[in-house]
Request: fold
Amino acid sequence: MGSHSVGSLSVGSHSVGPLAVGPLSVAPLFAPKVFPSLARHRVLLGVVHLQALPGAPAYAGSMERVLDAALEDAHALLEGGADGLIVENFGDQPFFGEQVPAETIAAMARCLQAVCAIDPDRPVGANVLRNDARAALGLVAATDARFVRVNVHTGAAVTDQGVLEGRAAQTLRERARLCPGAGILADVHVKHASPMGSESLEQAAQDTWSRGMADGLVVSGAGTGQAPEAERVARIRRVLPKAIVFLGSGVDETNVESLCAQADGAIVASSLKRDGVLEAPVDADRVRRLVQRLRAMGPAPAGEAKYGA
Reply:
């Protein structure tokens, strides 16, 4: 577990020659031998929202209940055709800013490995809220998960947890030490936050991609379930035509074509729940319909440019 080399391709290495897709970044998760669907169509990463874990104020006292709910959602997402999954401790509000306690990591490891075991061919990632990239990398190293999402990877942001600072230097070094095959998806001007600096969206994206060496970028709206303006994605695409860019919030059946026109896919949770209710279980039919719309849009921009769709 924790090793994700595929053939001669060292997934997570930043020296794969012709597969390089950006300055010092190779987007390992989406390399053709790991995620070949990127060259054919935009992808859907479905989110498994874990219920409150031990130690969180809303924890209901049963890890079995948490695990059962996580597996139910994961099965529904995969049945509906999601290309991969992200598991996050969504029920742990209020979130720790940058370092979660040991019980959170232990509980997430149990859930994460169980989700990974459902379909080893589809990648699973970890997002440790609010911004514990080190814990997420540890989870990848200890399980069959393949990537992490980091909310604040570069720069700094004011959030309801206080000021969160990007720690790309530590994260990249810890990845090299613990799990060199792990991909890093990093948010640009993350939701539920205000950037501290005066940098433009374009500059923040360039810093995250090039200087922060992220393997993919995530663009979100103001909050959970809120869509960003499509122009935000277009602005990033203009300055980083080869970057892998995901929508991180607000994508649904009514707006997927407009929002994902310049994106390589979407990370979706809210609109895939039964009746669109955030607290409800995932509805496989909703997943299926969204996947069909994404497939119908054709090759992902980054996949088409780099892998010859």
